[in-house]
Amino acid sequence: MTRTLWPISSAGDRRACVEQGLPVRKRVIFLFLDGVGLGADDPAVNPLATDDYPTLSVLLQGNRAVAAAGRLSTPDAELVPTDARLGVPGRPQSATGQAAILTGINAPQRLGEHYGPRPDARVRAILDEGSLFRRLNDMGWPSYFVNAYPQRYFDAIGSGKRLLSAVPYAATVGGQPLATYADLQAGRALAADFTNAGWRDELGYAGAPVYTAPAAGRQLWSIAQDYAFVFFEHWLTDVQGHARDLAGAIANFQRFDGFLGGLLGAADLANTLIIIGSDHGNVEDCGHGKHTENPALTILLGAGRRRAAAQIGALTDFAPAMVDFLAS
Q1: For 16-41, what is each residue's pLDDT tens digit?
Q2: Fewer CB within 10 Å, N- or C-terminus of the chain?
């Protein structure tokens, strides 16, 4: 079978195409929302049980991203309830869930427990073994983790006061230096809040470019042009779930909805698979502030979405489904 990602097929030649500035025709963009499950259709506790998201409403044909929707296929999207428990009792956690997404390895089963929030040596060993960033780079499919980090984050890592979470750790295993403020300024990276506003308002970076939510989505598409795999991480959803901040979560999903609309308006959806995915439930039940055992949210958009939907039932299925899409 001839690959359609590049004009020619070998890994070395695919790298040469990137170096020569030839376009990547086929790509995966993964929009990771931490701590979002499919919960009750109850707007008193679930921010996704409201009708405040015009982009998602169109994609899902007026259906809400809640448990009652089940597996849903529309002309534009596939909604897939995704098993985050992976055969291990207890509430799923971020480190092992994200490791499962980024490696295809059942990290909770290997450890005998759900573990998080940040990887310990056991989870780091799994990411060392199977990081999708490294695997795709080795196959000639350039990958990129788009999030930028402020200097105080690097200082905390360097001093040992903080550990890398699973996603940035997996990116570094793939050989990527984490993006910095300079990358944010140059338009090569985005902040986790979608618009970069937090860098100005909370971190004190007066020169940070601030986008509207739709413009940030368009900027992500611009950044994606040189890569076959782009991963964007948003963690505020999990924080808001723990804080039981229903109003804040609704406002945050509205920003995401605008961000997604901007991305979809710019993207080449005939050649791009966009995945909205999560590692476990939390914010879909703002009534208790804990992770849930609900299925994780997955929405598939663009090219290959129906084939990918048929392949995905659990967190461990993302990595092989993405490789299959790029290789087909």
Answers
A1: 555 655 555 899 999 999 999 999 99
A2: N
Tokens, residue 45:
């506790």
Angle at 254 (CA atoms; ends 249, 259), nearest 5 degrees: 125
Q: How does pLDDT run across 297-324, given as a tens digit for each residue?
A: 999 999 999 999 999 999 999 999 999 9
CA-to-CA dists, residue 91 to 19, 113, 292, angstroms: 45, 9, 6
Find out whether 143 and 136 touch, Cβ atoms under 8 Å. yes
The whole-angstrom separation of Cα 116 and Cα 114 is 7
Alpha helices in the chain (DSSP H): 11-19, 54-59, 94-103, 107-111, 121-130, 132-138, 151-159, 166-173, 181-185, 197-201, 213-223, 236-243, 246-266, 305-311, 318-327
Integer Cα distance of 26 and 156 in angstroms: 37
Whole-number Å distance between alpha carbons of 220 and 241 = 26
The Cα–Cα gap between 85 and 8 comes to: 40
What b-and-e string marks burial along 220-250, b requiring 16 or more CB atoms within 10 Å of the CB?
bbebbeebbbbbbbbbbbbbbbeebbbebbb
Q: Which two tokens stand for residue 233?
A: 């991480």
Are 245 and 237 spatial neighbours (Cβ–Cβ below 8 Å)? Answer: no
Alpha carbon separation from 110 to 84, 122, 164, 224, 231 (Å, rounded)? 14, 9, 21, 33, 25
Tell me how many degrees the CA angle 31-225-324 measures, rounded to the nearest 5. Answer: 60
Rounded Cα distance between 175 and 13, Å, is 20
> Virtual CA dihedral for 305, 307, 311, 314, nearest 10 degrees?
10
Are the beta carbons of 253 and 167 closer than 8 angstroms?
Answer: no
3-state secondary structure at position 82: strand
Is 72 in contact with 92 (CB distance < 8 Å)? no
